[in-house]
Amino acid sequence: MSTHTAYTAVAARKSLNRPAMQSHTPNGKMAASNESQTTTKTKKIDWPMGVRLYVQRSFVPENNIPGIEKTDMEKKLKEVITQAAEHDTLNSIDWDTLPLPQQMIQSERAKLASSSAAPHWSQSFSALFVKDSEKEKTSKKRKSAETTTLPVAQESLPPWRKTNARNNAFEDRISHPKVPSVDRGDKRQRKFEEDFSRNDPSKSDINLEKRRRRFEGVRLGAEYTRASSREDSATSEGEAGPVVGRCQQLEKKYFRLTAAPNPDSVRPLDVLERTLEMLKRKWRKENNYSYICDQFKSLRQDLTVQHIKNEFTVKVYEIHARIALEKGDIGEYNQCQTQLRGLYAQNLGGNPVEFKAYRILYFIHTCNRTDMNEVLADLTATEKQQPAIKHALDVRSALALGNYHRFFQLYLNTPNMGAYLMDMFIVRERLLALANICKAYRPDVKLRFITEELGFESDGETVQFFVEHDAQHLLEEREDGVRLLTGKAGALFEVAKSVAFKRVDIKGQI
Amino acid sequence: MQRVFETFKQAQRIGSGPLLSSTLSPVAPPEDPNRLYDIYTSSNETRIISDARSAIIYQQTGYKLSKAEGNAWVDIYAAYWKAVGQVIATETDARAGTWSAVYDAWKELANLLIKGYQSADFEAWTLPCLYVTGKYLRTFAIKADDQARRRGTVTFSSGFQDDIVSDYGKNDKLEDAARVINRIFTLCISDRAPLEESRKWGLYYVINLLFKTYFKLNSVPLSKNILRALQANRTDMPVLESFPASHIVTFKYYVGVISFLEEDYVQAEEALTYALALCHKDARKNRELLLTYLIPCRLLTTQSLPSAKLLAAYPHLEQLFKPICQCIKKGDLAGYDKALIAGEEEFVKRRIYLTLERGRDIALRNLLRKVFIAGGFETPKDGGAPIRRTRVPVAEFAAAIRIGSEIGQTIDTDEVECMLANMIYKGLMKGYIARERGIVVLSKGGTAFPGTGV
Question: Where is the segment annotated Disordered (chain A) (predicted)?
Fold first, then answer.
């Protein structure tokens, strides 16, 4: 080690600050310094102190960034120094504040993810010459330098250089008198918007909004890089602006985001609209839930990263919620329902009545009194009169009063897709009703009575239900038909009911 | 600010917590409406620290603070002075300040105070300072959230989430306040000092503040954690009776309401009754609140209705409960339904709707009982005492149930049977339905309607 005289002298001084350096130095480091020294020799350049320190810093273990290979870093380092030497900027560069090669790689990768047309480090490199004052602050502190020098570099870029140079950039500049507002409630306005998006998407307020956001995005773009540079920066990630997608493919597999989305794999609104139509067709034709669910999740993700929040968004969530409901995917259904609740609150259209009714039915299922009370408090008098909501409220009150007779009648006349939700608690309510009947009726009742009262489709189905609950011994065949010996049931249904009520499975609770 | 420091010194000399806490109030007392303004103008950003330092540390007369303690108080008063500035700005000119800024400034004060207990050994007699800070922290948080909602800031979900809406109906500041108050709670409950100088004496006040916040946030279940922590520490707690009655009444009220919401009416009744007995007789509003939950509770646990005399003493409660109680008493189902709908909004707001709804069973029971009584007696077979007719046709009950039902609203015999079955199932009526014969066979010997004498 001590053979590298030029090097050791520096290292010795530096090691006062970072004693760990020498001991932690792996062979790779020596190789790299050898490399840089060979360059030194071939070009006969006397490396300024700044450069040497810079190289040294690059190899300090504390400055390692997980996920960036040493070899990559070395390559970058070499590139940086060679370029500086070629451009004769070795002495003009402020090596103290120049991002370390690993940081450059990191920002490059992050930028690649956020925009493929992003400038390479060389741009941020050149940007360093522009902004000097801000660098001072961050010069010595490793930790903060890692996170702050990059935004500085990016901010110095004018927006038009950062945005993707797509053709629509121009059409987006067409100003539009309509100011997007969050609570455009009335139908006429929505209709208006619909017309617009159909006739000339470029002029719709959605696009205006998009454009506005894009420029916000540019300003905030720096945050993306910063955010992705730290794994635990969940909060700062939030400051990231929307992405503008430019993916033209209709289908896309869902991946959970772990870094800023890449615009190349994000589909813009018009593509998403076509995607939805295609998914609807496929669902009707193929009925393949795992495919559909995956596609809808990526669709939702694309909407989110682009901050698209309009009637189309509502539509996507509604359709996904309905499909999930049909397939009994309660977790996914709940996610959609939560989103819809927030979206409806902003009056973006859709079918709030239908989904509010589902909500009520769901809270019946989960026996959630606190939330039920809240729902009741939120309903307006008009909403209470809407058939779907009225139905759900009637279901609730029938159950609250133990009126199974009315409950099962309501079950047979459920609007929309509410029956899928009611199916989730129909068994336990049947058990409760049977516990009730067995206690109240003596000595027996006709099976037909049970079939009718408990909303079974046929006597056969009723018998099946008894068999499933080990209660077939209570049925007796007589000349005038099958009878249920209520007097002999004992606590059978009471026990089964208690078990059924305990087992309320709550997934992704709203 | 000088007067604040004078009061501080006085409080330190005599060891008066309430007096000390009065120096940290962000509200001007009625007799001194300009207090806040005077405080704020009496110092400035650069001077406040040295002002506080010279008053609190250098001029200690009659009391002695440790170095850490003195410095902690200096920081606290500097933070207080800043918070007062924010309050004035926000109250006088909505553009100059926001409640959110007030909240942040006040939170700084709260944090410094907490730190004072953690690292500068503030004594337990100063606890009222925590009360005042916690109380206004909550107030400011609510104001800040209201203001944010009114401004309607549209937010997008943060992070790399897949979905659009992340903070529906947000209460950012209040949730934050709940966390700070929770820290105060931990500060109190984890104090290992001997009881006489323990911060545990502050527990119930802080818990009440937390409960209040959780209720406002609609996260009542969080209260259970607090109760569990309290339960786990119950062995080294002073006895309940030795705490200030006001703390205990409020605490029991919340415990009662929490049990009530969980449908544990027996425990709810116990807690509410305890609180009502301890509650000051002139604290009408508090008594009214307690009764709001105790009355529906009793309706379900003991099927008892409030007396006219009790209701008469509380006009608001009378208005709330009287119509429904009268209908229950008379067995007037139609009237009951109407009364429930009429009061629905208020009932839902007070979270008693779902409980009161079940009072319909009692109304129905009373109605059926009337039918039973109207059935009269059967001629005794062997000259004994006459006994009531216990075989009642379902049709008779059906007729009674249909009274007052609106035209078009049909109640068929099956539904009537269902209602009767429920009565039997819930033990409000004893007997059985013989469906084939269309009669109800009720229990003999005065037990057909348990607890009602027939």
Answer: 1-43, 132-210
